[in-house]
Write a structure and sequence with these properties.
Helices cover about 55% and strands about 5% of the residues. It has 10 helices and 2 strands, in the order ααααααααβαβα. Helix 9 links the parallel strand 1 (about 150-155) and strand 2. The protein is globular, with a radius of gyration of 18 Å.
């Protein structure tokens, strides 16, 4: 549930329901990389960006099973703003703005910020993780006997929403399923949408608590 487990984990939810919350980031990593590859190539062709097109040619189409391939692919993705959605009417603080939120927050120390932005990245994104990612395929799971909620940025091109919607339509979830789109958000949720997500998660937790047998 959710897009960012760190955001979900910081919301205070009833203890008896917290054990029911599980976060998944993506339905099928290899399929998503292929969608992202096509999106990035189209963007680079539109911009006549020969450097990025050459890099994509060198990398070849996904899947990427080596850490260097995986990171080399994501650098131009981020350059083309795959994480953040903005338009003439929708403005987002972006990565730097998010850093300012960290710095201005009373809940995070400088040590917390360092570990979040540097240490955790280096410890998390490893060759072993990339190999694990290659095995992720929730489409093999046809039925889940737990309540499901899919929260996704409608403008997300970093983790494309189409496989999410397809999986939502196909999964058998007898205890209920919900798919919620956030129209102002890409991969990084827009600050206005985070307030809506927080309310959704709290309300959803309260609903779950009514389902839990004490």
């Amino acid at each position: 549930m959710g897009d960012d487990y760190r955001f979900i984990d910081r919301i205070q939810i009833p203890r008896k329901t917290s054990r029911l919350f599980r976060h998944i980031e993506i339905i099928n990593w290899q399929e998503n990389d292929q969608i992202c590859f096509d999106w990035l190539r189209a963007k680079a062709e539109e911009a006549n960006d020969r450097k990025t097109l050459k890099k994509l040619e060198e990398l070849g189409r996904p899947p990427y099973l080596l850490l260097k391939q995986w990171t080399d692919f994501r650098r131009p993705l981020i350059k083309y703003n795959s994480l953040v959605y903005e338009s003439e009417t929708v403005k987002h603080p972006g990565m730097l703005g998010s850093l300012k939120l960290f710095l201005n927050s009373s809940e995070y120390s400088m040590k917390d910020i360092f570990h979040t932005l540097y240490s955790s990245y280096n410890l998390t994104y490893t060759q072993a993780l990339v190999e694990d990612f290659a095995q992720v395929d929730f489409k093999k799971t046809k039925r889940l006997e737990v309540p499901l909620a899919f929260l996704h940025g409608a403008k997300d091109v970093h983790v494309d929403g189409r496989p999410v919607e397809q999986y939502y339509n196909e999964i058998d979830a007898p205890l209920g399923k919900e798919l919620v789109w956030y129209d102002n958000s890409g991969h990084m949720f827009h600050p206005d949408d985070t307030e809506k997500i927080e309310k959704f998660v709290i309300d959803y937790a309260n609903k779950l608590s009514e389902m839990v047998v004490v």
